[in-house]
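PROTEIN DESIGN WORKSHEET
SECTION A - STRUCTURE
LENGTH: 337
TOKENS:
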């Protein structure tokens, strides 16, 4: 308990150092996989040096991050400015509910809207994105030095493990952990992009304000098992109710995005993911709460990838394997050795 408490304190106190480094690790991993993908072209693999491919892949990833962040920040700013116009629709919605169901909820709804400060949540998200962009120079330096150290990793670990058998065992574990993480992140990304693209079409057709913001939210929530797609369906549907003051857009979004999430989750995801490791929904929520408390909204975005990495690593060692079983969805974890 003392160790856990110290780790939590260090994570909180060292946030300004650790958070950019965690982002750098994720970007380094994605860049490395992008470089390997580019490497599949015979001409590029033969004639273009690895360092040039790393630079090209890095420019591509960082460029996408900066463009996405700029679009999101603009969308958040627009939503914050427009929110006051939506509040007037609360009375319209209350009156319609009273008319259809003979239930007077105007006072309760008005109180909820008063207490629920939507702009403060948008401001928190805006500040988190600004903070990440503010650390971008440090993240870039971390990524550069990770690529410099990449060539020295094996040499250092060769010196750490005296016995040849231990060294080869370590290499085998690291290669398979890398493969498992790559498989999980890439397949989950494909599923999230598919769901987000179809959902974006529905949001655009209905005319919801800042559809790119809601699409990004749906994309990120798709990385949270079970609960994420539900939240990603309900939030834009409720916002459409607030924006239009009509039930039709609400039901179109709720049924449309809900159907997409259900079909993708029940048909596409099992076929693509197969036996790839999943997280328990309860663990995903706890992870979301813990990392959100420590690192705010940024911690929430990173919570599931961090937990997946921990499960995969814990599964490789006898001492921590029970933890991996507890954290996994159905208790089936792979020992990659």
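SECTION B - SEQUENCE
RESIDUE ASSIGNMENT:
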């Amino acid at each position: 308990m003392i160790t856990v408490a110290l780790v939590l304190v260090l994570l909180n106190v060292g946030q300004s150092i650790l958070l950019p480094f965690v982002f750098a690790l994720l970007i380094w991993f994605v860049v490395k996989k992008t470089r390997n993908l580019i490497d599949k072209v015979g001409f590029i693999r033969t004639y273009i040096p690895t360092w040039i491919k790393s630079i090209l892949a890095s420019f591509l990833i960082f460029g996408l991050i900066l463009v996405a962040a700029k679009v999101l920040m603009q969308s958040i700013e627009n939503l914050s400015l427009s929110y006051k116009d939506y509040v007037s629709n609360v009375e319209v919605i209350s009156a319609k509910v009273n008319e259809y169901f003979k239930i007077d909820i105007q006072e309760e709804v008005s109180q909820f809207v008063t207490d629920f400060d939507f702009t403060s949540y948008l401001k928190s998200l805006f500040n988190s994105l600004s903070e990440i962009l503010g650390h971008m120079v440090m993240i870039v330096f971390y990524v550069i030095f990770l690529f410099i150290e990449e060539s020295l990793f094996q040499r250092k670990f060769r010196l750490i493990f005296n016995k040849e058998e231990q060294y080869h065992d370590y290499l085998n574990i690291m290669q398979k952990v890398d493969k498992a993480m790559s498989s999980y992140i890439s397949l989950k990304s494909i599923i999230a992009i598919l769901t987000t693209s179809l959902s974006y079409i529905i949001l655009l057709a209905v005319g919801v304000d800042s559809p790119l913001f809601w699409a990004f939210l749906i994309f990120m929530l798709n990385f949270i098992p079970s609960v994420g797609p539900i939240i990603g369906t309900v939030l834009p549907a409720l916002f459409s109710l607030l924006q239009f003051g009509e039930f039709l857009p609400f039901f179109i979004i709720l049924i449309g995005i809900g159907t997409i999430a259900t079909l993708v989750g029940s048909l596409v995801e099992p076929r693509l993911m197969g036996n790839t490791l999943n997280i328990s929904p309860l663990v995903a929520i706890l992870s979301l709460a813990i990392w959100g408390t420590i690192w705010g909204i940024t911690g929430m975005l990173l919570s599931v990838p961090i937990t997946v990495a921990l499960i995969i690593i814990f599964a490789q060692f006898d001492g921590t394997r029970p933890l991996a079983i507890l954290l996994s969805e159905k208790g089936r974890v792979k020992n990659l050795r």
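SECTION C - NOTES
The chain has a mean pLDDT of 78.
The two ends are 30 Å apart (CA to CA).
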